Amino acid sequence: MTEIYLIDGSALIYRSFYAIRDLRTSSGQLTNAIYGFTTTLLKILKDKKPEYICVFFDLKGPTMRHKAFAEYKAQRKPMPDELVAQLPLIKKITELLGIKYLEKEGYEADDIIATLTEKFKKEGYEIVIVTMDKDIMQVLDENVTILNPAGWKYFQLKDFIKKYNLSPEKIPDIIGLAGDPSDNIPGVFGIGEKTALKLLQTYGTMENLLENLQSIDSEKIRKKLLESRETAILSKELAILHRNVDLEVKLKNIKISIPHIRELLETFEKLEFRKLAGQLKELNPSITNLYSQEDLLTFSNGESVRMDELKSSPDKYRELLEDEKTEKYGFNLKNFITYLAHKKISFKNPSFDFAIARHLSGKVINESNVSLLIRQYRQILRKLDME
Q: What is the Cα 90 distance to its own chain's centre?
């Protein structure tokens, strides 16, 4: 059966921002949220190879829940400016990977995910929701699975029943009684999840529980429920995900499209995500020659050699490599120099390193003609007084 991957983008970027501390480019640009988010997307693309995938973001501004309860998520600080600054690149990379993203004013990402889950499971598809949030568990069923990117573990309907001894639609009832500190949903003061589960396993729903307070043995619990009746009802309402958000989304709209490899590699280069650039090439073997000059060592006599070829037969090029009159050009020449040193070959006259030129200039120039590439970089570096 066809799988559809629905990803809680907002949860991912927050987790990445706080889990990866102070990751910056050499120029000081903070990239921790971008890196963590992109790493997760690439892993999903590599390991799961989804045909249909969509990312969802929260928009700034009040939602339906804020209108119902002014204190909803009031304990959360506004999104840090350093995270806000990374959002445009996160969304750009999502699109360049060929993945659609959705957001809707007045609703949270979870509401949109719940709506599309309801729609697509009715059409007979398997749904995999990528998130760490607890409230999304209320949409679990035989055709809906949750994948937690924190440990890459699946959580299925059978796991929920084993853990809670309730059906997933009881999540709002659990939150109505026990509250949810992460969203500032109060619940009933003094009742935790353990007590809430016990009560719901006996009474079924929170409404039934509140209608039969006289049958509760514990006077203490009975009093708490009586005093917090309205708060419990409101808390449950806040926890219920909207499954009828007005969206015009068809399956074909979230089919993954051909990634914009050149722009992705340029973006990764500027962000200094060299490891991710390598992962991108692993995902797309057909692009190995897109930046073939990065794997080439070029000599001033016009000859060029690929790194893999140089490794397989270094002695074949010993004379050129050790010739002090022959200039050598390439990306990360240090890699060539150190490798050849182990082979007892002395690398002479390293003349121009494009990786260093990119770093100093902040420019990624796509040019296959090595002479023209050197000329363009030298013009830029001369203007910057760094030639």
A: 8
